[in-house]
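Action item from last week, closing it out:
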Amino acid sequence: AQNCAEILNQDEGLETLLGLIHESLPERLRETAYLLACDVAAADGEVQQEELRLLELIRHRLDIDRLTAAAIDRAARARFQTI
């Protein structure tokens, strides 16, 4: 966690961190990683614009296609929807 914070504090830190994730994560787990990011964003019941932008960056960096991302996004919303 400390290394992550140090990277994020650098210029282009987010892009660097996303690159490290892309390089170290097996391709078969990239959709799972995106799903987990969506779950975290949706957990409080409301996804802010900043969170949407971050999810978009993650989607692009992990090479998740739009159709797959839309299905994952919808599933995350459904899991955290309240009556």
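Closing note: Residues 42 and 78 are 9 Å apart (CA to CA).
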